Amino acid sequence: MIRQQLQQLSKSELIAVILQQQALIEQLQARVAELEEQIKRLTQPPKDCSNSSVPPGPARQEYPST
C-alpha cells in the first residue's frame, strides 16, 4: 500500500494491516531460520572417522576377505 491509501484507512483498518504484517513477519522469520539451518547442514563436510570423535561402528569396518 502506498502512503495515500494508508492515510484513508480508519484506525481499526490500520491496526488490522499492522497485525497482518506482524503475522507475515513472524512466518518469514521462522522460514529464514529454517533455511539458515538447512544451509548450515548442507555446507558442513560429511562426518567420517577422520573428522568425528565417534569411532566407526563394526558394520563400517572393512574385514579382509577369506
Derived structural class = mainly alpha
Q: Tell me what portion of residues adopts beta-strand conformation.
A: under 5%
The number of helical elements comes to 2
Mean pLDDT: 86
- Overall geometric form: rod-shaped
Order of helices and strands: HH
Oligomer: single chain
| Fraction in helix | 55-70%
User: How many strands, what sense, and barrel or not for the largest sheet?
Assistant: none
Low-confidence stretches: none
Radius of gyration: 26 Å
Topology:
Blueprint: H1 3-7, H2 11-43
Can you describe this structure?
This protein starts with a helix and ends in a 23-residue tail after the last helix. The protein has helices at 3-7, 11-43. The protein has a domain at 10-41. The protein is built from two helices and no strands. The chain is 58% helix and 0% strand. The protein has 66 residues and is an all-alpha fold. It is rod-shaped.
Name the features.
66 residues, mainly alpha
What's the quick description here?
This protein has helices at about 5, 10-45.
